[in-house]
């Protein structure tokens, strides 16, 4: 009976483990980016705004749409008499030069909206990729702490056996016990921090907190890049393109202001009416006319008028944007050069840190062997262990720094993330 119960417990445990593994949603960084793009609330709001701009663009021609009206009336006498009635209709059409600028402004506003939306998507992707890599770093750090704890535990158990055999002092035993137990709260703190970051990451992705996720990836795969060469036109950089788009919109607004101040407006209207009585089936025409008018504003030619002042303000705004463009081109070019130098310097430093980890590992292994043979004390071994952990942590931190710098440079250039420095690029 006990054997049957034990087998049942084991079987149920296996089922539960399998179920738990199946219920975990595994995510690569690209899958996380797709989730964020689909579910992020801020992007959903921007899509609504973009749809509104698109509708305005598609109907911007409606300024030339004719105005139609129809009316009818009837007169019914209280005493004997005929009922009289009349119907009339009119159509009017007006045209101003600002119609052209209205259509162009709507088109430019929509294009700027598309650019803003694309930039928002890139910012979300940049944020997701950085958080993803940071979580991988924390996960890797947890694994390092777990290995440190296991090593400290193994050393404590070995020292306990030596102490029981009378080969080790009580002080060394207590020191090794403290080294083991002091790692536990550090590990728990890292795990709590990781879980909190995962919860925030789920919110960014638009996932329910009930969904269990597991990040799939390795920091190393994001660092496999060659020499970075930039062949991109500076005017294709997103920050510069934004100012260029604003300049194009400012030129259109200046033209619209000029049309408003100086441009003529033409209007045409046609009206037609019929009237009759109940006593006669014949309808007489009461109105049939076509009118044309031309209006030419003259206030805009006066330098102190509102129209002239508006034109001057628009010109000043355009000149300011031209200066912004010049400054932005110079700052972006300098930023790109500095980022490339910093990345190359960080890559060179990474090799030094990798060598330092190898050296620290050898030093720890040699110290551990010497400690087991009694030629090194426990403090020396602990120092070697701490030095190894510090070297590994510095290496991981440097990897995160390089990865983040590459992402920032890709974002500045506006190239797809993960392509900079790749051979196919």
Structural overview:
The protein is an alpha+beta fold. 67% of the residues lie in helices and 13% in strands. A hairpin with an 8-residue loop joins β2 and β3. α2 crosses α4 (98-164), α3 packs antiparallel against α4 and α8 (306-372) packs antiparallel against α9 (378-413). The longest helix has 67 residues, at 98-164. 13% of the residues are buried. Residues 1-21 have low confidence and may be disordered.
List the helices and strands and how they pair.
Blueprint: H1 2-23, E1 24-27, H2 29-39, H3 41-58, E2 67-75, E3 84-95, H4 98-164, H5 170-205, E4 212-215, H6 219-222, H7 238-262, E5 265-277, E6 284-295, H8 306-372, H9 378-413
Parallel strand pairs: 1-4
Antiparallel strand pairs: 2-3, 3-5, 5-6
Radius of gyration from the alpha-carbon trace, in angstroms: 38 Å
What average pLDDT do the residues reach? 80
Secondary-structure element sequence?
A: HEHHEEHHEHHEEHH
Order of strands across the widest beta sheet? 2-3-5-6
Quote the distance from N terminus to C terminus. 67 Å
Tell the overall outline.
elongated
Structural class: alpha+beta
What's the number of extended β-strand segments? 6
Major sheet attributes: 4 strands, antiparallel
Low-confidence region ranges? 1-21
Q: Work out the helix count.
A: 9
Strand content is 5-15%
Helix content: 55-70%
């Amino acid at each position: 009976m006990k054997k049957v119960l034990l087998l049942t417990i084991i079987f149920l445990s296996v089922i539960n483990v399998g179920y738990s593994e199946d219920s975990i949603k595994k995510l690569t960084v690209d899958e996380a980016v797709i989730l964020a793009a689909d579910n992020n609330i801020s992007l959903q709001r921007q899509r609504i705004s973009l749809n509104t701009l698109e509708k305005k663009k598609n109907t911007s021609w409606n300024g030339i749409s004719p105005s139609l009206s129809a009316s009818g009336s009837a007169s019914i006498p209280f005493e004997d008499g005929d009922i009289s009635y009349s119907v009339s209709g009119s159509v009017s059409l007006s045209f101003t030069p600002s119609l052209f600028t209205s259509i162009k402004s709507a088109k430019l506003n929509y294009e700027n909206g598309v650019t803003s939306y694309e930039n928002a998507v890139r910012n979300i992707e940049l944020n997701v990729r950085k958080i993803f890599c940071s979580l991988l770093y924390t996960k890797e750090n947890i694994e390092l702490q777990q290995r440190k704890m296991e090593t400290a535990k193994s050393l404590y158990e070995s020292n306990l056996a030596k102490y029981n055999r009378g080969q080790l002092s009580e002080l060394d035993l207590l020191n090794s016990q403290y080294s083991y137990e002091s790692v536990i709260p550090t590990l728990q703190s890292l795990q709590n921090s990781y879980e909190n970051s995962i919860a925030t990451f789920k919110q960014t992705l638009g996932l329910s907190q009930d969904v269990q996720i597991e990040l799939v990836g390795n920091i190393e795969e994001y660092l496999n890049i060659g020499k970075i060469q930039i062949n991109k036109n500076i005017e294709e950089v997103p920050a510069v393109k934004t100012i260029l788009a604003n300049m194009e919109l400012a030129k259109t607004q200046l033209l619209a202001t000029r049309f408003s101040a100086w441009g003529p407006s033409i209007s045409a209207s046609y009206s037609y009416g019929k009237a009759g009585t109940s006593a006669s089936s014949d309808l007489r025409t009461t109105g049939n006319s076509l009118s044309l008018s031309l209006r030419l504003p003259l206030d805009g030619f006066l330098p102190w008028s509102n129209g002239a002042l508006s034109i001057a303000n628009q010109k000043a705004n355009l000149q300011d944007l031209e200066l912004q463009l010049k400054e932005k081109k110079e700052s972006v070019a300098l930023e790109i050069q500095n980022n490339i130098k910093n990345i190359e310097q960080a890559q060179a430093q990474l090799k030094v840190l990798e060598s330092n980890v190898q050296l620290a590992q050898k030093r720890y292994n040699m110290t551990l062997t010497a400690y087991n043979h009694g030629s090194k004390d426990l403090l020396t071994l602990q120092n070697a262990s701490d030095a190894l952990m510090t070297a590994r942590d510095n290496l991981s931190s440097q990897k995160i720094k390089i990865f983040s710098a590459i992402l920032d440079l890709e974002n500045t250039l506006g190239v797809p993330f993960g392509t900079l420095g790749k051979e196919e690029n």
